[in-house]
Write a structure and sequence with these properties.
alpha/beta, 237 residues, single chain
Length: 237
Amino acid sequence: LALIVSKAEETIRIYKQFIAVSPSTKRELVEKFGISPSRVAVVPNGVDHEKYKPGPKDPNPTILWVGRLKRYKNPHHAILAFGVIKRKVPNAQLIIIGTGEEKQKLKKLAERLRLTDVYFLGKVSEEEKIKWMQRAWILISTSMKEGWGLTVTEAAACKTPTVAYNVPGLKDTVKHMETGILVEPRNIKELANAITLLLTDETLRTRMMENAYRYASTFNWNNSTKKFLSLLQIYYK
């Protein structure tokens, strides 16, 4: 595997132009692979605003986690933080959408912490995912690295702000203290405090909801397609 990766790193330098989905990805291409910044353009992911749009919020404080249940995405951090949150927000609920090999471990963790308001929905349709993004008060993202963090933008389009780790990709999709809150990776206490703050401070949450919605509106597939095509025309005349 190491040999394959090494050869890939050698091969990648022969390409004429690179298109990254975020400034974080561009920085990695430049710093790790030695690609000239002038050869890397950023074309962010878009959102289908016909589908992802605001809807009614759940009457109970609802926290949403969406993604593959993989170790590096740290879904267990969401459960650990939820255990702290419940002490101050007893009627809060945590909705987890996604599948993966960590599912049974996560269920056992929730049982051990006696958290009865953690709901594992597994794999859901896009329509149900959107419904929960609309109903959620907050999305949380505990991954250690993302190319972009599309679920953050999708949730923002539904007027749902995000609390995320301050890591590559997520720090591009979350504007700290504007569209959400960025916290130190693996710091469960800081993660729980940030979520609790947004759940209990309606004024702050409402402001971030509006900011997130406006920020998400700048990302759509039509704009991304136009930029992508313009780059192709420039470099492949």
